[in-house]
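ok, trying the design again with the full structure, not the truncated one.
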């Protein structure tokens, strides 16, 4: 339901400028982060203002510093169970070939004829849909796309890696409410979603989620209209500029593409 620095050297003798603007990322000292596909210890540390070696020591992660999807990275001082990195699979060596003496030839018996049966074909699993009552409630809402851009990740019901869709765009691009509703959450406490918003639509059974924003433009308890700009697209809590968008019914994530208009 609800993821490199270039160093250059110059050999000329021209004097360096007396001042330079350096973007300093404040060090995050609270909360935690859930590792997503494509994350590295270095990228997580960089986005949260940490030295990667210090972050590894803080989370008791030893060499070779491998991470697993779903692993918890803490920034505060709460106790953390020891996490062991995933070890690389060992190559299995094939057993030595054994030679055996051939038994004396015996007259072969005719094999009974066996009719071949056609191979069974397996159909792909159906797309996850909510119960009939949930489908009716979701279809009754006039949904609209929360932003413009390229769809770069689709809903994944089976493996749970993506409980919504990801839309790529530019930093600062408008993020809009997908339907009329009430803002029930605004902040960065939804781990793995960065600066995020949750909007309730009609009843508390249907909500939409907007993650990885650069800046939130609405507050909790505020009523919003469909198409109203509620945030600026960003890369908080992830490695690229994008919007992570979810639709949930009774806390169960559903495929947003089933309800958003075709485009």
């Amino acid at each position: 339901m609800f993821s490199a620095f270039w160093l250059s050297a110059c050999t000329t003798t021209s004097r360096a400028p007396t001042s330079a603007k350096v973007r300093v990322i404040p060090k995050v000292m609270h909360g935690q982060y859930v590792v997503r596909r494509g994350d590295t210890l270095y990228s997580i540390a960089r986005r949260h203002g940490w030295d990667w070696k210090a972050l590894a020591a803080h989370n008791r992660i030893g060499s070779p510093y491998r991470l697993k999807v779903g692993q918890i990275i803490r920034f505060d001082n709460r106790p953390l169970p020891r996490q062991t990195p995933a070890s690389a699979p060992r190559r299995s060596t094939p057993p030595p070939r054994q030679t055996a003496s051939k038994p004396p030839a015996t007259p072969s018996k005719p094999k009974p004829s066996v009719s071949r049966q056609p191979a069974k074909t397996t159909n792909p699993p159906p797309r996850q849909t909510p119960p009939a009552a949930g489908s009716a409630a979701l279809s009754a809402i006039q949904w609209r796309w929360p932003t413009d851009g390229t769809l770069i990740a689709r809903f994944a019901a089976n493996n749970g890696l993506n409980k919504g869709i990801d839309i790529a765009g530019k930093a600062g691009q408008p993020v809009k409410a997908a339907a009329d509703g009430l803002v029930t959450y605004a902040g960065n406490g939804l781990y793995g979603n960065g600066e995020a918003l949750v909007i309730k639509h009609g009843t508390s059974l249907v909500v939409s989620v907007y993650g990885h924003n650069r800046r939130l433009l609405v507050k909790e308890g505020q009523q919003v209209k469909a198409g109203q700009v509620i945030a600026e697209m960003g890369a908080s809590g992830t490695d690229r500029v994008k919007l992570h968008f979810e639709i949930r019914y009774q806390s169960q994530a559903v495929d947003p593409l089933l309800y958003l208009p075709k485009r």
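Keeping the full-length input from now on. The longest strand covers residues 206-216.
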